[in-house]
């Protein structure tokens, strides 16, 4: 990839750029909802997204800190702004149910979402850089015009909406030749709402705080640490870790375990980047997402029948397992100023077959992403990037999924996604 050197922004200009990025992202955040690897994005930054989300050892723009804060020191001084159009296709099928729930249900009452991203990095010296990344870390939306729980008393539309906005200021330093350490403060703002799931009120510790309470919000903070090291000319290794971020939705203390607790899981991963030839770069990442360590997400629904109601201490959740993701990306600078990207990623399945009934509301079951992307250097200062990604269709069939108290039978959940995004970058 080509890199150009420009004089740094003045401090007032840098401050204005950062504030503008945050303001626009905050304004667009309520429109953002997505579900890829569970409910995390498959990557951060349009460039990374075009290469299957690889980036732990391959920082490409000022969104690098969202993946590995060490990358803040490796992308120079720059500003990036991007937008992704996200189109999911989600739904469910209930079969063999004795309470009249059988049928095919379309969860696409709303089909299109916008996901913004902004980043800014500045080199303070040859060894020290700072940055700010603003992005959506994950989310989930379903909206069933025909309520899957209607036959047992569900009223109106059914579904949930989860949105997460992250603001991540970072700092990175070259601590030795070829070795960079980075740290970032992770500031998270979450929004959640649920509707149409009244039939579960009898299984809740607080049936009045289970559904149709409007939008609730939660704020939390965490820490992200990262390292990137050059092992040999053209060969780099990276590692990144993000702490759990505490969250709670008091309006839905009758739905989520531990009185509305909804923490954001810890993640960690390692990555490798290799340049076998001047025009080619190969990248590979491995990522772990700890959904199972968050009670409201990882606890199985079966806890309901062990005397633990919805919303109670260590109560039932969606029964999701931890997710492990392998990402592979390739970049080719076809001609000076034009870089093409492609990638493929595969994730383990978060939703077991016996946990699909509750996951009708959050069918985050896709496992495979195929991506293409490009960057075109318009001139020495600016560039335009774009990507398209397809999360391949996936269905998880229920296996002992619907409790007998709700009529038994099975719930099958399905999801596929299409993402198209573009970004503009300015190098100082």
Account of the 3D structure:
By secondary structure, this protein is mainly β. It has a single domain, classed as Porin (Beta Barrel). The protein has helices at 11-28, 46-49, 257-260, 295-298; strands spanning 78-95, 103-106, 113-123, 128-141, 159-176, 179-195, 216-232, 235-242, 267-277, 280-289, 323-335, 338-347, 368-377, 382-396, 410-427. The protein has a 14-stranded antiparallel β-barrel. A hairpin with a 2-residue loop joins strand 9 and strand 10. The protein is elongated and about 65 Å long. The two termini are 16 Å apart.
The major beta sheet can be summarized as: 14 strands, antiparallel, barrel
| Principal-axes shape call | elongated
| Overall pLDDT | 92
Radius of gyration: 22 Å
H/E element sequence:
HHEEEEEEEEHEEHEEEEE
User: Uncertain segments of ≥5 residues (pLDDT<50)?
Assistant: 1-15, 17-32
CATH topology: Porin
* Classification by helices and strands: mainly beta
The fraction of residues in strands falls at: over 45%
Assign the CATH architecture: Beta Barrel
Give the % helix. under 10%
Number of domains: 1
Strand neighbour order, sheet with most strands = 1-3-4-5-6-7-8-9-10-11-12-13-14-15
**Helix run count:** 4
The CATH superfamily is known as Outer membrane protein transport protein (OMPP1/FadL/TodX)
Beta strand count: 15
Task: Report the top-level CATH class.
Answer: Mainly Beta
Cα-to-Cα separation, first versus last residue: 16 Å
